[in-house]
Amino acid sequence: MGVVKDLRHFCTNLTDGNKHLRLVIKLNRVIALSENKKNNAAIKLAASYILPLLCGTAVSAVLIALSAWLMCVLGLPHSTAGGASFVALAAGTLASGALCGLIRRRGGLKCGAICGILFLLPMLVISAVSGNISGSAFAGKILTIMLVSCIGGVLGVNAGHR
């Protein structure tokens, strides 16, 4: 259950068996309070990659929905869907890498690369199941996702330093 105190402070209480963990997420860092220091490190690490991944996925979903609405309203052909989904995917990975860089505040390329890989895993599984894993367009998507997420990670780390 979450309690929003202001835009920069969000608290979530988690229960882990008999132990009560409190996860405090601020805009620029993740602080985990627990009895065990190993749990703190694991919660910080997981939250610093999972939260940006979820935010990047939300950005991609919103942009895909917006592009679908525009295609319907403007009567655009179905061939424009591929380009719109590519732009939405790139924007989502950029947001994911940037948010991870903001949270971690160091290692922007590594943060971006990990977020890019986490973005790629579902895409690779779905493409393998559907049989669309070959071709230069697929390789271009992989290269673009990794490049844009790394750029986002570097931008996020540099945006944190003022």
Give the SSE layout:
Layout: E1 2-6, E2 9-16, E3 19-26, E4 30-33, H1 37-74, H2 80-104, H3 108-130, H4 136-160
Antiparallel strand pairs: 1-2, 2-3, 3-4
Describe the structure.
- By secondary structure, this protein is an alpha+beta fold.
- The chain has one domain (about 1-160).
- The protein is about 70% helix and about 15% strand.
- The protein contains four helices and four strands, in the order E-E-E-E-H-H-H-H.
- It has helices spanning about 35-75, 80-105, 110-130, 135-160, and strands at about 1-5, 10-15, 20-25, 30-35.
- The protein has a four-stranded antiparallel β-sheet with strand order 1-2-3-4, with helices on one face.
- A hairpin with a 2-residue loop joins strand 2 (about 10-15) and strand 3.
- Helix 1 (about 35-75) packs antiparallel against helix 2 (about 80-105).
- It is globular.
- The two termini are about 35 Å apart.
- Mean pLDDT is about 80; it is low at about 1-30.
* Arrangement of strands in the largest sheet: 1-2-3-4
Helix fraction? 55-70%
Shape: globular
Low-confidence stretches: 1-28
**Count of helical stretches:** 4
List the keywords.
162 residues, alpha+beta, 4-stranded antiparallel β-sheet, 4 helices, 15% strand, disordered N terminus
Please provide a brief summary of the model.
This protein has 162 residues and is of the alpha+beta class. It is built from 4 helices and 4 strands, in the order E-E-E-E-H-H-H-H.
